Every structure is written in structure tokens, then in C-alpha cells.
User: Fold this.
Amino acid sequence: MFDLIPIARIAPDRIESLLDAAFGTDRHGRTAYRLREGVTAICDLSLAAAIGDELLGSIQCWPVTLAADDGTRVPMVLVGPIAVSPAHQDVGIGRALTRAAIARAGHGDIAGGDALMLIGDPDYYGRFFGFTAERTGRWRLPGPFDAHRLLALGNGVPDKAGDVQPRVSADAA
Ligand SMILES: CC(C)(COP(=O)(O)OP(=O)(O)OC[C@H]1O[C@@H](n2cnc3c(N)ncnc32)[C@H](O)[C@@H]1OP(=O)(O)O)[C@@H](O)C(=O)NCCC(=O)NCCS
Assistant:
């Protein structure tokens, strides 16, 4: 059985290698990466799955905001990347990582913890965790994305038009 541990215990280059293996080395051009520019991952919501020294999977979560057209700013949490080593996929590691991050977001005092978002496969993130595109239809992102893959979860998810942006510390609200 694997353990879920703080991602900070794993050397960053090992996480990068895992992400390359799961998503490919061209992953940095994805729109989700533009939402992470200039911010650091939320420690409490960023985890690794490991057996001893063997890294099996990881999840990182990031502070973002919806700068709404009505002038309000709604803090949210960008979930992902979620990656599982190809040799260990389909045995529940991705589910365990994602469920742990969702639970921590719901219990902790984390800005945006009630408004989780990601760009991903609805067949996975909807089926297992309840993410939907119901309230994301009027969101704009800093790059291309498929509308049906822009998903959100939580009571605080804003159903408004606006730009999703990285949330830097000066913009914590
Ligand atoms: C997607 C990913 C995080 C899932 O983690 P995992 O540990 O392999 O998957 P789990 O064990 O939690 O869940 C397995 C179930 O999810 C399904 N599943 C896995 N990836 C899926 C996807 N992209 N879309 C739909 N279903 C998926 C499997 O078919 C399996 O279903 P079953 O239980 O009915 O057999 C992992 O496979 C991964 O890192 N993949 C590479 C990156 C990727 O393709 N991401 C796409 C999603 S954005």
C-alpha cells in the first residue's frame, strides 16, 4: 500500500520527471500552466504518493482567482497536475491523491478551498469526484481550452463571467 505524503519531501526534479512521464515533455505549453505563473503551489494541498523511496504519483494545487466582469474577485484553487507513474496507473492512486486534496481543501482555512477548478477529462473528474462544467461556461482563460473540460467543484464556485488568473499574494482576496 502506498502512503500520501507532503510533496515537499520529494525532490522537485523527481516530480518534474513524473510529470514528463505522465503528460509528455511538451506539457508546459498547456493553458493550465499559464494559471500557475508567478505563484507557488499550496503546500497543504500538494501531495505525493510513495512506497518508501519510490514515487508513484503527485498532485499540486495553485491559488487562482476569477476576476469577474462585475468587479468582484473570487479566490479559487486550481487542482492539478495530477499524475500517476505509467507503471502504477489504474490502481486507485489518482483517486486517492485527488480525494485527499479535495478533503483538505474543504476542511482547511484555505482561500478558495470551496471553489476548486481544473482542466481535465470529465469522464474521470466528473465520474469520481463530481467536477462539472455547469458554472464555468462564462470563464475566460489565458489560452485555448475545450469548454467541456473546464470543470469545477464546490459551493463557492462562481457562476459569473470573468478572467481566471493566477492569484499572487497581493491579490489574496
Ligand atoms: C489520469 C490519472 C491521473 C488517473 O489516475 P490513476 O491512478 O491512473 O486512476 P485511478 O486508479 O484513480 O482510476 C482508474 C479508473 O479511472 C479511469 N480513467 C483513468 N484515466 C482516465 C481518463 N483520462 N478519462 C476517463 N477515465 C479515466 C480508468 O479507466 C479506471 O476506470 P475503472 O475503475 O472503471 O477501470 C493517471 O492515469 C495519469 O496520470 N494519466 C496520465 C495523464 C493523463 O492522461 N491525464 C488525463 C486527465 S487530465
